[in-house]
Design a protein that fits this description.
The protein has 688 residues and is an alpha/beta fold. The protein is built from 17 helices and 34 strands.
């Protein structure tokens, strides 16, 4: 049986195929923004041809498809979501707009001229239901069905595409909210996407819960429509396996369940990149890693410390608060397709706007006329015009030259000088993002290895490391399909949460075990629905904890069942130690509160990922020499040796300046670096 991982990005759709022996084959196609499933299926068609099969027999042999996509994120950021109606507890319709007093989060809180926040649900569509549940879970006022019916009449008149049901304290007792959601689904049918806050984020904090639920409703119809259509097309082509979606928390879950929780697909693709970094770091016995992923549209960075992929519940996507657990990444509009432009002060800028897949950079010859980072790399000699995607796309250097000339002339710069300025600017922007997650948080980048992914990443990886002073760069063998590779290394499962707010000295161990028992039963039921057995599940417990009076919480692992005061004391010691590790101090004299319980349920042994080792060779890489090409390094044009990545062997050593041409990417080795090929086929670059 065959496994497939497909990552639909802003410019390229990446496809990695794992055969029955564990061998990997890579394929790429341009993303099709008007219908992303076209690029998805085009990749599968390429894979079928490579395996000598027709598309139907190839798809019929696939066991599982792991799928990551930026569709949910893009729909939210570009405001292409559904018209949403919100049904909420009487008296709380403005909770979404008050939003704890937050202004636009990218401006100073003291800036009085910030335009007011525009909620995803306009006020006239935030309608009220008469009901009240107390924080204890006691229902003070039962749901008034007539008030719900009246709201649904209004929603029907306004032709809303989605409804978010958000009641006060539904995390403590969802009875009223469940009933309201059932009425909505029965009355509105399948044409309207309905979601409820207890299904999305069953934790305290009305604003965070309401905002996250509304975001899920806003993008829900687009996500659901895409997935239903994709499943139908795959089924028509004979697919009988499992379609699994990458979640924002770094896990993989069934498509059916992901449809019901659309918000969990935000950052779906980028969430897989740190898993890929940790896999390659494990091969090299490196536990401190900086993962960077530079594609055609965006640049994503994540910091892995002591082999731990960081997650957060404090995310903002655009202006929207999204409080589900997400893999912590920083993203900016910096990719191969990022546009160079001149601002109102006459200064050269790069990004965040992108040429995307259509029309793409000028050198693609698809109608693009504006200069991009890829065009600059072509002029600098870093990217081969005759071997882009293995020669599938022939690049036109003259189109790149013409595009950059239009920008260079107003700046009184030569074409090569302008190209190098674009290269340096984009590298500085990306280095700044690494500093945000490392140096500004107290980490020394010299203690980390830089793991570089994305189709454009290996062109810039060493230059970023040089700016930062990072001593070692790792460019994985499948770096051009970085996130897709990470999907094979991810766990299949889900995370479940339940509020339990209590001081540690008042902790009821029997109640704690009862709550975890309920989460365990829910996890078993959900994963059995996907065909898994309860005996195949691995359960990991954690608790969100804080010092009394604090606002932010820390997640602490729980060692299975807590049976005594000594067990609780061990958890408290772990909390103090973790607090000190994160913030350099602890407050052992202050009482500690438990806030939220979490259960991470995953399938054990779902898939073992092993790389086929390269044949061993000596230090001399001469047998892989391909040609020489003039490249601009610093102020010097150098006849630079270029090597064929497919012919390199483990142990080969390449001194910079040099270029390695892979089928799906290009590795640039500056003069200050030496590159060694390891047995996994990765490129290890170290500063001399």
């Amino acid at each position: 049986m065959i496994g497939v991982a497909i990552d639909v990005g802003g410019t390229f759709t990446d496809c990695l195929v794992m055969d029955s022996k564990g061998g990997l084959s890579q394929f790429k196609a341009l993303t099709t923004p008007e219908d992303r499933s076209k690029g998805f299926l085009e990749c599968l068609e390429k894979a079928a041809r490579a395996f000598g099969k027709d598309i139907r027999s190839f798809i019929g042999s696939i066991d599982s498809i792991f799928h990551g996509t930026t569709m949910a994120t893009n729909a939210l950021l570009t405001e292409r979501g559904a018209k949403v109606g919100m049904l909420t507890t009487d008296g709380f319709r403005d909770e979404l707009e008050i939003r704890r007093g937050f202004k636009n989060i990218r401006t100073s809180m003291y800036n009085l001229l910030v335009p007011p926040y525009k909620p995803l649900v306009e006020r006239y569509l935030r309608l009220l239901a008469r009901e009240r549940t107390l924080y204890t879970g006691e229902i003070e006022t039962a749901l008034d069905v007539q008030s719900v019916e009246a709201a649904l009449e209004k929603f029907a008149q306004e032709k809303v595409g989605a409804v978010a049901v958000c009641f006060l304290h539904s995390y403590a007792n969802p009875e009223n909210e469940k009933k309201a959601a059932q009425i909505c689904r029965a009355r509105l049918g399948n044409d309207v996407y309905v979601t409820a806050s207890h299904e999305i984020l069953p934790v305290s904090g009305e604003y965070e819960r309401f905002s996250t639920t509304v975001v899920s409703a806003y993008i829900g119809p687009i996500v659901s429509e895409y997935m239903v259509a994709l499943q139908k097309r795959l089924s028509e082509l004979g697919f009988k396996g499992n379609l699994m979606m990458v979640r924002s928390d770094g896990l993989v879950q069934s498509a059916e369940h992901s449809r019901r929780q659309a918000v969990t697909l935000i950052n779906s693709g980028p969430a897989a990149a740190p898993t890929a970094a940790r896999f390659y770091g494990g091969l090299l016995r490196r536990k401190n890693l900086i993962s960077v992923d530079m594609g055609g549209t965006s640049f994503d960075v994540s910091l892995i410390y002591k082999d731990e992929i960081p997650t957060t519940t404090e995310s903002w996507v655009g202006d929207e608060r999204v409080a589900i657990k997400m893999v912590e990444t920083h993203s900016i509009g910096a990719g191969g397709g990022s546009l160079a432009w001149i601002d109102s002060l006459g200064l050269l800028r790069v990004g965040p706007q992108s040429a995307g897949a259509d029309p793409g950079p000028a050198c693609y010859g698809r109608g693009g006329e504006l200069p991009t980072v890829t065009d600059a790399n072509v002029l600098l000699g870093y990217i081969p015009t005759d071997y882009f995607l293995g020669g599938e796309i022939a690049l036109d250097a003259e189109r790149s030259r013409s595009a950059i000339r239009k920008m260079a002339e107003p700046l009184k710069m030569g074409e090569s000088e302008a190209a190098q300025a674009i290269y340096n600017i984009i590298n500085s922007l990306m280095a700044d993002q690494v500093i945000e997650l490392s140096t500004k948080r107290g980490y020394d980048v010299r203690d980390f290895a830089l793991v570089v992914g994305g189709g454009a990443g290996p062109v810039h990886g060493a230059a970023i490391a040089e700016l930062l002073g990072v001593p070692e760069v790792v460019i994985p063998k499948y770096s051009a399909l970085y996130s897709a590779f990470g999907m094979f290394a991810m766990d299949i499962g889900r995370e479940y949460t339940h509020n339990y707010m209590v001081r540690a000295d008042k902790l009821d161990l029997d109640r704690l075990e009862s709550l975890f028992g309920g989460l365990t039963a829910q996890a078993q039921a959900d994963l059995e629905e996907s065909g898994a057995k309860a005996s195949d599940l691995v359960m990991n417990r954690t608790a969100q904890m804080r010092y009394a009076g604090q606002f932010h919480e820390i997640e602490v692992p729980l060692p299975g069942r807590l049976e005594s005061a000594k067990d609780v004391e061990r958890v408290l010691k772990a909390f103090h130690a973790r607090h000190k590790e994160l913030y350099t101090f602890d407050l052992r004299e202050r009482s500690v509160e438990f806030r939220t319980l979490s259960l991470r349920a995953t399938l054990k042994g779902a898939r073992t990922l092993k790389l086929v080792p390269l044949a061993r060779g000596g230090a001399d890489a001469g047998t892989a020499f391909k040609r020489k090409r003039r490249c601009l390094f610093g102020k010097k044009w150098i006849d630079t040796p270029c090597y064929d990545g497919a012919r390199l062997a483990a142990g080969n050593l390449i001194r910079g300046p040099a270029i390695v041409e892979e089928e799906a990417t290009t590795i640039v080795i500056p003069e200050a670096f030496v590159c060694t090929v390891d047995k996994a086929g990765s490129y290890l670059l170290k500063r001399r």
